[in-house]
Amino acid sequence: MPSTRSELVTAAVHYLYALSQNLTPAAEISGAVEFETAAALEEILHGQGRTRAEVINVFALIAATRTELTTGSAVPFSKDAYDAARARAVRGLEFAGRAGHQIWPPTSQTVRKRLGTNFWNDALSSLGFPTSGGGRKRGAFHYSPEAFRSAVIDFLTDARAAGGAESFSRYEAWAKDERAAGRTRPSGASVRNHFGSWNDAKAAAEQA
Fold this sequence. Notes:
The protein is mainly alpha-helical. It has ten helices and no strands. It folds into two domains: 2-126, no CATH class; 145-207.
């Protein structure tokens, strides 16, 4: 499903950022990736011939990047740095390009198209990374804590009024519709990075 594909791209950015910054793998990996996405990613990694230890290391690095984002310690992550880290990550994957094998992490072009309307800084900003250079910045560094809470509260109110799901993917669709209507809302990834998880975001909204 599209949301899973986008989350796989998000996970790739988190993983390669950790590689590029030589981050220490996190000791706790539960919740680093949404359950459905984690299952899909694990299947891909096993298909690439990764060992169990290598798979765990990938998730631990993803978790390390999420901690950097949550604490505000992340630094700008350029397209060139992403490409260099990806080259390291796929080195030795002899099957790359063969039919029936999905290449992960994806190219920076895929990141731009999937997450940033074809602009690298937009893609990284939507994930909560600080960006350098000109242009409007979006993401976790653009919104106040109250704006994050208000977005989740408003989403839950609308979802319950319509009798719809309160899932992460539904929030993403809702936020996109809100932005199209001229109401500024943080992306799903930024909300999750801010609160730590989607469940924590909902819990914080309930307590507000």
